[in-house]
Amino acid sequence: MANARALDKRRKSIRNIKKITRTMELIATARFKKAMDRATSASDYTKRITAVVADLARAGLEVSHPLLEAPEETKSATLLVLTGNRGLCGGYNGNAIRLGVKTFEALSNDIENVSLEVSGKRGISGFNFREMSVAESFTNFDDQPLYAEVESIANRYLRAYAEGTLDRLDVTYTKFISVAKQEIVNETLLPLGKIEGAEASGDDSEASGRTSLYEFVPSAESILEEVVPTSFKIKLFKCFLDAAVSEQVARMVAMKSATENANDMIKMLSRTYNRARQSQITGEIMEVIGGVEALEG
Amino acid sequence: MAQIQLVIVTPEKTTLDQMVDAVTVTLFDGEAGFLPGHAPMIGRLGPGELRARVGSEESRYYVEGGNVQVEDNVVSVLTGQSMSVGEIDLAAAKAELEAAEAEPASNQALAEMKQKAIAQAQAKIRIASKS
Predict the structure, then answer these.
(1) Do A226 and B67 touch (CB under 8 A)?
(2) Tens digits of residue pLDDT in A108-117
(3) Is there a smaller number of Cβ atoms within 10 Å at the N or the C end of chain B?
(4) What is the pLDDT of residues A262-279, one digit of tens each?
(5) ipTM of this complex prediction, to 2 decimal places
(6) Quick check: B57 contacting A, CB < 8 Å?
(7) What structural domains and CATH numbers belong to chain B?
């Protein structure tokens, strides 16, 4: 039978671990709420931008922009993988890295010049471990990514796209669908393809029939020129926000199950400990009785 | 007295949502004012000042560009960055201006981006030093 004292020691250390995982779960919950609030307030902007694009489309404007059309030849591409700075969040980082590696290989087959960019310390070390060279890395994004920081990255991509040194941009990140469901996805952000709201004119012919009520200053085309790069930036920002929210959810879930496992383990150890203690006591009593009987006899 | 709703939205949050008497924004080519009951319009903003007047009080904001949409007595300003004038960091704005001037302008798209960055930094400095 195991030593009761050793069992007790183990049980104590598991109790301490449980305290830590429980606290981490609570922290992740608080962070998740904050990140979620940010993501919700960001969607307000997206909604309004979509409305503007729909209005532009309704005014009979042909929605076209260099960012929306694929270049004739795709020579160089960039893959951006969004991971977390910290671990202890279940499969969150691992899954993102795995899909990142897969996408990178698929891109490398078609395109000669593919560079890899990674956000998050976990991803950087993951790709280093796989001996893949990371062209650019960011560690400044935590649970609350700042628009200004994302914008500076977006501007760099836009510049490279304008220069012709970048023809395609893919982002691998964890898309937040609901608290119970997050999905690792790979999205092509450049060329943009289409912007939301642009098809609105096709859907309802009545709306496109009437002339727009809006007055465009200076012109619908000029406003479109402003809206298209913005919607690219917003899309990229949304990726960062989604990744941040998903990370917190993943950590919350991981820490919750860790706490539950610790509880189970404590229960089991307590049972073994009690049994060991009881048998020890029984043994001692037997010894005492044996001693007394020996004296009497 | 009739009022008009002013909403300033940035990708991060809704900076301002308030009923005001009058709004003045900086369009790409100059200022434009909106009073209650303005006709629907969509305009392109330039970097500059946004003034909102309630009674005799006027609050001033820096807006870096974007769009303004007027509809149903609501002025929505969609911009990448906006802050109240008191929050502008003059030293940082000057550093931004220098950084913008150092950028390359080898083709048309790049030149436009450079111009935009310079204009934004200049507008920030101009507004901050006015108060």
Answers:
(1) yes
(2) 998 889 999 9
(3) N
(4) 999 999 999 999 999 999
(5) 0.81
(6) no
(7) 4-85 (2.60.15.10), 90-130 (no CATH)
